[in-house]
Each structure stands twice: as C-alpha cells, then as structure tokens.
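Anyone able to model this chain together with adenosine-5'-triphosphate?
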Amino acid sequence: MAHVLIIDDDQMFCEMLAHKVELLGHQAAFAHSLAQGLALCQAGGYDVIYLDVRMPDGNGLEWLGRIQASPGRPEVIIMTGAGDPDGAELAIKSGAWDYVKKPSSMQATTLPLARALQYRQEKAAAGQRRALRLEGIVGADPAFAACLDKLAQAAGSEAAVLICGETGTGKELFARAIHENSARHGGSFVVVDCSVLPQNLVESILFGHEKGAFTGASEARRGLIAQANGGTLFLDEVGELSPALQRSFLRVLQERRFRPLGAARESSSDFRLLAATNRDLEAMAAGGAFREDLLFRLRTLVIDLPPLRRRGKDIASLVSHHLELLCRRYGQGAKGFSPEFMAALTAHAWPGNVRELVSALEQALAAAGPAPTLHVHHLPQKLRIALARASAHPLEAAPRQPEEPAQAMGLPPLKQYRQAMDRQYLQELLRVCQGDMGRAVAVSGLSRSRLYALLKQLGLARQD
Ligand SMILES: Nc1ncnc2c1ncn2[C@@H]1O[C@H](COP(=O)(O)OP(=O)(O)OP(=O)(O)O)[C@@H](O)[C@H]1O
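re: yes, here you go
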C-alpha cells in the first residue's frame, strides 16, 4: 500500500481522485494550498504527490523542487490545465515523474500512479541490493538479477521464504545470504536437511530431549528448533518431509512452540523460517503428498532460482569467480583458460547447474596440474563426451531448450535423468577424491550426511 497526497484547490476533484486511489488499495490525503501541501510533505511518508499547477498561493511548478526534496523523496505527477501547452513541457523539464491534463477521466489520471509506484519499488529494491553483502553470489543475467531483488526484499523482512530451483542452483547460498543480510544475522543459521532425517531420531533432533527420555539419552540435548531461537531455521529439501513431520512442523510454525521428548512443559523458539525445494510443491499439494496449509505458511515470499542453462551470460563470471577460489584453496597460482575451454563450458547444458560447473572446474584443475592454462582436454571426460555427442546429434544433448517437451526430444523422465547425473557425478567425485570423504565433502559442497545419503540411495556406498 502506498501513500498518495493530492495538492489541488478543487475540493470535489480531490475527493474523487482520493476515492479512486483508495479503490486501488492505497491511502490518500489532500491539501488545498501549496503551503499546506508542502507542510504535509515535510512531515514525510508520501510515495507519490499529485500537484496542480494553478494554485491559489502560487504556481505548483515553482514549488516542485521543494516537494521532491521532502523526506522520502516522493515522485510527483503534475496536473496541468488543458489550455496550457507549456505546462507539460515545463513539468517534464523540471523533473516531475509524469503529467496529466485536466480534465481527464479518473482512469487516465491514475494511470501514471501505477507506473510511478512500480518505478519506486524497483528503485528501492536496487538500492537495497547495492547495500547487500553478497559475498560468493555471482550473477547479473536478468533472470538472476530479479532473484537478487527478491533476496533484498526477503532480507529486509521477517517473511517466510520458499526458495525453489533445480539441484545446484544456489538455494542454500541464497538462504544464507538472506540470513546474513537480515536483522537476525547475529543469531544462528540452523539447517535442517529434511531428506536425511533418520526416522527413529527425528523428533529428538528437531525438538531435543530431556535426560533419560529414551534408552541412550544420557544427557539432555537441545534440538535444532531451539538452536534457531533468535536466528533462522532453514528447511532444506522441504518436499521430503514425511506426512507426520509435516503435521508436527505446521504446529511449530503456527505456535512457535514445541515439546522436547520427555519434557513436562512446552518450550518456545523465536525463529525466522526459510525453506528450499527442488520439487513442485504445488503439484505435490494437489496430489495430496504435501499439506496445503503448510505450503501456505512456507511461501509468503517465493524465490525461483533459474537453472544455469537459462542464465548463460553468467557462466563466464561464475567460472572466473570459482577458478580463483579453487586456485586459492589448493595453493595454486592463478590459471588462465583457452577460448575453446570457455566455449565448451558455455555450450554445455549443466543439468547439475552451478554445482556441476564448480565440480568440472575442480576436475580440470586437478587434470591440468601445474600447467598455467586450462584446455578442453582438462575437462571431465564425461562432459567432453556429452559435448561431442551434442554437437554431432544436437537432439541428444541435455535439454538446452527446456521449453520443448521432453518426450518429443526422446529424453528419459527428469527424475531418471537427474539420478543418472547424480550417479555419474558421485562416481567421478569418488574417483577424483580417491575415496577421501573429507575431500569429497569439500569438493561437492554437500554436507557429509547428505553425501552419505546420496551414495546410499544410488547404491554407491561402500559396504565396509
Ligand atoms: N550464483 C552463484 N554464484 C556463485 N556460486 C554459486 C551460485 N549459485 C550456486 N553456487 C555454488 O554452487 C554450489 C551449489 O550451491 P547450493 O548448495 O547453494 O545449491 P542448492 O540449490 O542448495 O543445491 P541442492 O538442491 O543440491 O541442495 C555451491 O558451491 C555454491 O557456492
């Protein structure tokens, strides 16, 4: 809702315009003289001012500068008389947002208001974005820039945010950035990976337990929800929550209260909720697999992160950023790359998104050893084969054109495709890290528990 001030000496016109503005969901006030209007502006709080040129105490255009400079820097829409051709030109030259000619229909009069408010919102978001600390987040493609605006909006509020996107698109990175830029940044950022919560321990992990609550509970333990008190609780892979846990969570979200196992009383926790998913929760809710009331609570704000194939312009800056990080991490000097290397990276469809790109760079660095320049042949063999096949048979490529129906392109179902990619990635990861799980965790960017869960799920876990 915006605040609009109408400065016009015509009482009836003011009332009609104020009524129309209120119908549009905003608040309106009016002043019948320039002096009264300026006084209201000085008190602040207005987003848009309608300013009539012919006023009893002077010419509105001569007061424009002072009105624009008032607190909140409102946008000003000038109202000029029909027989005043110079008025419009003067209004624009004086830096007004727009002008309307009187008399005009109410619809025509309020049209510039919507545009002025949109402009104002975008200006505010861009300002907020400039003020954000976004270490480690790279991207300027318009599809991605819109997500950064949402991030700024999320950081400035307490709203629950649902971050959607394919695997490896940066959902956790965004969640951390929202926390770090929010008023809660001094509190903890607690991650609950909903895909690996072991059924038998889930309640104790989330809600905590008292000493002796069950066999083996030799000490009382705070659960993750209590740990998030004063900070942010991030439900990663929220689409994997079992129906029973969805029910429990809904209650915690409604009341911010929970009962640790074995406790006589309930405890409370003041946390801000963020959640992420790579699943279509709407479809799951429609099919009864996800509670609609929970979904409603999770998604006050939604950030839809685009897959890397839809933000091709960002590949070069992502490569520079991550190459620099990786070279520093492994104590190597800065590396260059051949134009073909970058062309190959740009041509790939990256079904595993930024995570897959980072992993390919890591493998290229390992393959290049001390050589100062990365070439195509340093890239993982699987990626080179995929590129070669794609250039020989474009339709065999991973979907560069996601809009085309998968069946029409002879592709397997997405789930099957993703599993195959995950399996391929993990096999390569184990090979490169030679079974060193600490390194595999560092390289993959996955948590240790998530990595083990994936290995198990795909039948790659060691049997020892
Ligand atoms: N915009 C970005 N700029 C720089 N690095 C990024 C960006 N997006 C993702 N990454 C990197 O990609 C990797 C994966 O990111 P992240 O774990 O946040 O993805 P995710 O969407 O949460 O993945 P998953 O769904 O598999 O949990 C990390 O190494 C992260 O630093």
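The mean pLDDT is 86.
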